[in-house]
């Protein structure tokens, strides 16, 4: 049976949804991420998708793409319940992360750098976040980078998107102050400082819409080894 995502769980912007089926757009994004890492695909690798939504599970259920395992985490409990029930590929698993976010989960628990993910002690070769840091308060972004650092294998990679503004002269601001985390915007210096302080090194940074893809400024990072 074909895996079908209900329309209420298609949370991308209408302009992004108009680009094609979420599965095909997801395949293009994952292919781009792999090429940024210098690999062909995720064959033999464990992927953690933080803020997963439904696009990549849709891709993995309905398109052919090799990987060892996919773990999706999201604050939206209804989406996680749907995915855990319907996305039956044995490579896939899904977990709710009940952390506070002003826009997406206002009643969740406060997130700190010591917060644990609901996945035990698992480690991953690749961690990705698409349209997650774009919806994080600065302190929460720092906490999230610190949390994820504990779940990456040595030699692993972190790939994520963010909204960068190096013209305004400020470290961070909310582009929609009436809707906190509607679009969280960072200077590149501030974002890189948060990454460095939490154990990450930036390997590459590419401006928005590479190859016409629906992704903002994108960063590829590696974990900094303890001295």
Task: Tell me about this structure.
The protein contains 6 helices and 9 strands, in the order ααβαβαββαβββαββ. By secondary structure, it is α/β, with parallel strands linked by helices. It has one domain: Vaccinia Virus protein VP39 (Rossmann fold, 3-Layer(aba) Sandwich). Helix 2 (22-37) crosses helix 3 (55-62). The radius of gyration is 17 Å and the shape is globular. The termini are far apart.
Uncertain regions spanning at least 5 consecutive residues? none
* Rg measurement, Å: 17 Å
Strand content: 25-35%
Order of helices and strands: HHEHEHEEHEEEHEE
Overall morphology: globular
Mean pLDDT: 94
Looking at this protein, list some descriptive labels:
227 residues, alpha/beta, Rossmann fold, 6 helices, 9 strands
Topology:
Layout: H1 14-17, H2 22-37, E1 42-50, H3 55-62, E2 67-74, H4 77-86, E3 92-96, E4 124-129, H5 138-149, E5 152-164, E6 172-174, E7 184-186, H6 188-197, E8 200-206, E9 217-223
Brief account:
The chain is 26% helix and 27% strand. The protein is of the alpha/beta class and 227 residues long. α2 (22-37) crosses α3.
